[in-house]
Design the sequence.
């Protein structure tokens, strides 16, 4: 069997800490792309097309995210992480320009193309968390992932403020300036990413050996559960997040209220990252992921209980908090299920499955909201996270019995 020369780490994790900090800064900037698209594309889409199609531009963003996951992994494997990072930043800049033109020309189709490029960019910055783990020791990996995710706290501040401060700067083209500003932020993120230092794995035996077949790797119960938890946490969080801005406007709340609700949601998504890695080290990955799924369920229940501003905001905050614990836990589980020379393909397939499910949920959200209302969107969350939580508990119990 071929091998890879030990993990690309040093005993002090100096390189890993440097990369994690740089990637956290890039996450803070690039995350604004997602916030701007999710916070505005549904509203803009509703003005350019039928209400049932309002969330389609956000869904094409998710579609782009899904479509790009495997190519991102292949580019990173062949040309290195930095190449994929810079291509992603370019896609982010293109997304902002196209969306701005869509507003000016009142083109629903062009808006969807722009958000598709935004999804390509999102697929790349979703890989930052795995990149942070590349040069980290096993003990530091959960913290490295958490550091990068913590950069999203600033994204939660940057994105909504871009919307609030720039939405009316280019009258009569509401939101056109938002998209152009986001384009500039994407280019700035590309400059920050030039500071990363992530060497490629060094082969010590047969050239081109990529490790075990995927069919063998994905037969591991732990990896299956990691993917299921990632799918459940991300798809349900996105289902609600995609629908919430449109639902809030339908319930008589303002655009600013919807933007601030999204801001607190994104802060909830990333603020726990300051201590999620520590929680995983102390209590175990499975327990932290399970707690996250339970909090997501609580967010769904709050969403079912009312349509006041506080119901929306509380549900969004809980969904963000739960997503962080469940998704960081799922990501940490994935990194424990592959060898160094298998990392790119396993991580890419994991994200392909997670974001594929997310795309299905996103495309369904507009129809659910238009046909059945906000309560149905919130209700769908519960059975999905219950199934994922049950599988997590079952696999953990089996592992304990085998270890006993």
Sequence:
């Amino acid at each position: 069997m071929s091998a890879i020369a030990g993990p690309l780490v040093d005993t002090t994790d100096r390189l890993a800490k440097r990369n994690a900090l740089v990637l956290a800064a890039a996450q803070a900037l690039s995350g604004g792309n997602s916030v701007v698209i999710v916070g505005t594309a549904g509203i803009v889409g509703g003005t350019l097309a039928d209400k049932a199609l309002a969330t389609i531009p956000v869904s094409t963003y998710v579609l782009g995210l899904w479509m790009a996951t495997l190519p991102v992994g292949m580019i990173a494997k062949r040309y290195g992480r930095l190449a994929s990072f810079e291509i992603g930043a370019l896609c982010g800049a293109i997304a902002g320009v196209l969306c701005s033109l869509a507003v000016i020309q009142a083109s629903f189709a062009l808006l969807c193309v722009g958000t598709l490029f935004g999804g390509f960019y999102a697929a790349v910055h979703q890989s930052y968390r795995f990149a942070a783990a590349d040069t980290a020791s096993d003990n530091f990996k959960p913290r490295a992932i958490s550091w990068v995710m913590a950069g999203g706290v600033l994204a939660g501040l940057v994105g909504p403020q871009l919307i609030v401060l720039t939405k009316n700067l280019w009258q009569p083209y509401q939101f056109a300036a938002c998209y152009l500003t986001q384009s500039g932020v994407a280019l700035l993120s590309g400059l920050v990413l030039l500071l990363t230092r992530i060497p490629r794995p060094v082969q010590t035996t047969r050239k081109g050996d990529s490790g075990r077949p995927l069919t063998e790797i994905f037969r591991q119960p732990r990896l299956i559960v990691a993917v299921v938890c990632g799918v459940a946490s991300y798809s349900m969080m996105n289902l609600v997040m995609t629908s919430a801005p449109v639902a809030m406007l339908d319930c008589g709340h303002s655009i600013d209220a919807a933007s601030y609700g999204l801001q607190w949601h994104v802060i909830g998504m990333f603020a726990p990252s300051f201590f999620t890695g520590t929680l995983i080290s102390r209590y175990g990955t499975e327990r932290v992921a399970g707690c996250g799924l339970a909090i997501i369920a609580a967010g769904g229940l709050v969403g079912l209980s009312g349509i006041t501003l506080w119901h929306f905001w509380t549900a969004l905050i809980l969904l963000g908090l739960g997503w962080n614990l469940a998704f960081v836990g799922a990501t940490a589980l994935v990194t424990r299920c592959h060898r160094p020379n298998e990392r790119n393909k396993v991580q890419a397939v994991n994200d392909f499955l997670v974001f594929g499910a997310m795309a299905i949920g996103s495309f369904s959200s507009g129809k659910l909201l238009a046909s059945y209302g906000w309560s149905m969107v919130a209700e769908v969350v519960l059975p999905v996270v219950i199934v994922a939580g049950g599988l997590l508990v079952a696999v953990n119990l089996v592992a304990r019995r085998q270890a006993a």
